[in-house]
Amino acid sequence: MTTRLVLLLFGWLLALPGIAAEVRDHPAERIAARTWVIHGPLGDPSVENQGFMNNPAFVVTDAGVVVVDPGSGVQAGRMVLRQIRKVTDQPVTHVLNTHVHGDHWLGNHALHDVFPDAKIMAHPLMIEGAHGGQAKRWLDLIDQLTQGFTRGTRAVIPTVPVVEDQQFSVGGVTFRILAPPKAHSGTDIMIHVVEEDVLFLGDNVMNGRLGGMNDGTFRGSIAACDRALAVPAKVFVPGHGRTGGKEIVAAYRDYLSILFETARVEYDKDKQDYEMKPAIQARLRNFSGWVGFDFNLGRHISVAVLEIEAM
Question: 14-207+216-247 has which CATH code?
Answer without folding.
Answer: 3.60.15.30
